[in-house]
């Protein structure tokens, strides 16, 4: 296992190098620059800004400087937020997105997995039909529609939840519910189908034939294997939740990673775009490694050489 983890860490570093390189050159290929959108900007001022931020340097030198900065945790200054570095923006925004994503993840797991198990165990009964309908609706309704409905009905009309901000526990209700709805519905369906497949395996029938209690058959023998596909989905999903939701944070005016990322794209703020992309890629790669480790915990038959 140790050698496997070391090899995966090396592959993560290589992956991050590729992501950083692609992001850098894509930013350079796009016509214009971070200051070309400024109105009535004199040519001398534009030249001075490009010189200050080393945008006039040869492309290879810019690339080497950027890659050195990334792996020394110095991603450079923001072009639009004067006096603020990219790592400062991430340090400010990531805890907000992580809190939002963490609560949404708890909702997804606490509600989605048990309902998926219940639906599988009650196959063909009214509980199964109700849960299936709810899961289908959750997948069919887009996140921005759910967020808008929460904001309009429960916020503006009923006044049960705040319509903006992220200060008290009530502020979590709207964005966390809208952010978790799709993934929760998907986890329900995935858990149900996986549980039904596992319950039909020979070793489950053998365990039942030996007279083991139904609860022990389900939770000790069936559930671990049934959760493997769920873990596969939850790993990358967690990276997405933790690193910021563009739509949800925009709707509820939450100052998280998604909000700053959208602003950086609109403002052509290259360093912020490249820094947040690198940060997201690092989280995603780490979560995929965590999924592989959890595989071995859930199923002892899985051995990494």
TrEMBL record:
<keyword id="KW-0812">Transmembrane</keyword>
<feature type="transmembrane region" description="Helical">
    <location>
        <begin position="130"/>
        <end position="152"/>
    </location>
</feature>
<keyword id="KW-1133">Transmembrane helix</keyword>
<dbReference type="Pfam" id="PF19300">
    <property type="entry name" value="BPD_transp_1_N"/>
</dbReference>
<keyword id="KW-0472">Membrane</keyword>
<dbReference type="GO" id="GO:0005886">
    <property type="term" value="C:plasma membrane"/>
</dbReference>
<protein>
    <submittedName>
        <fullName>ABC transporter permease</fullName>
    </submittedName>
</protein>
<dbReference type="InterPro" id="IPR045621">
    <property type="entry name" value="BPD_transp_1_N"/>
</dbReference>
<feature type="transmembrane region" description="Helical">
    <location>
        <begin position="100"/>
        <end position="118"/>
    </location>
</feature>
<feature type="transmembrane region" description="Helical">
    <location>
        <begin position="9"/>
        <end position="30"/>
    </location>
</feature>
<dbReference type="GO" id="GO:0055085">
    <property type="term" value="P:transmembrane transport"/>
</dbReference>
<keyword id="KW-0813">Transport</keyword>
<comment type="similarity">
    <text>Belongs to the binding-protein-dependent transport system permease family.</text>
</comment>
<dbReference type="InterPro" id="IPR035906">
    <property type="entry name" value="MetI-like_sf"/>
</dbReference>
<dbReference type="Pfam" id="PF00528">
    <property type="entry name" value="BPD_transp_1"/>
</dbReference>
<feature type="domain" description="ABC transmembrane type-1">
    <location>
        <begin position="94"/>
        <end position="295"/>
    </location>
</feature>
<feature type="transmembrane region" description="Helical">
    <location>
        <begin position="278"/>
        <end position="298"/>
    </location>
</feature>
<feature type="transmembrane region" description="Helical">
    <location>
        <begin position="172"/>
        <end position="191"/>
    </location>
</feature>
<keyword id="KW-1003">Cell membrane</keyword>
<feature type="transmembrane region" description="Helical">
    <location>
        <begin position="226"/>
        <end position="247"/>
    </location>
</feature>
<dbReference type="InterPro" id="IPR000515">
    <property type="entry name" value="MetI-like"/>
</dbReference>
């Amino acid at each position: 296992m140790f050698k496997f983890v070391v090899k995966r860490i090396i592959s993560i570093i290589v992956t991050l190098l590729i992501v950083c390189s692609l992001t850098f050159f894509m930013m350079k290929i796009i016509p214009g620059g971070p200051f070309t959108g400024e109105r009535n900007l004199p040519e001398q001022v534009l030249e001075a800004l490009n010189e200050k931020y080393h945008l006039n340097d040869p492309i290879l030198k810019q690339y080497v400087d950027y890659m050195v900065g990334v792996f020394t945790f110095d991603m450079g200054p923001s072009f639009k937020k004067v006096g603020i570095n990219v790592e400062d923006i991430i340090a400010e925004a990531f805890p907000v997105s992580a809190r939002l994503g963490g609560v949404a993840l708890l909702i997804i797991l606490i509600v989605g997995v048990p309902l998926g198990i219940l639906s599988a165990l009650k196959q063909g009964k009214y509980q199964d039909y109700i849960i299936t309908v709810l899961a289908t609706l959750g997948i069919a309704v887009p996140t921005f529609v759910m967020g808008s409905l929460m904001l309009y009905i429960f916020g503006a009309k009923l006044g049960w939840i705040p319509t903006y901000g992220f200060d008290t526990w009530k502020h979590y209700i709207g964005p966390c519910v809208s952010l978790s709805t799709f993934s929760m519905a998907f986890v329900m369906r995935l858990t149900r189908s996986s549980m039904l497949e596992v319950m039909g395996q020979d070793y489950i029938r053998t365990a039942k034939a030996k007279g083991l209690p139904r609860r022990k058959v389900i939770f000790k023998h069936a559930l671990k294997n049934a959760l493997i596909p769920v873990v596969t989905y939850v790993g990358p999903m967690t990276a997405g939740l933790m690193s910021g939701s563009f739509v949800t944070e925009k709707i509820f005016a939450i100052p998280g990673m998604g909000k700053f990322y959208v602003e950086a794209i609109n403002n052509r703020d290259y360093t912020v775009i490249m820094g947040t992309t690198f940060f997201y890629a690092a989280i995603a790669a780490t979560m995929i490694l965590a999924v592989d480790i959890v595989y071995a915990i859930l199923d002892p038959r899985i051995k990494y050489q």
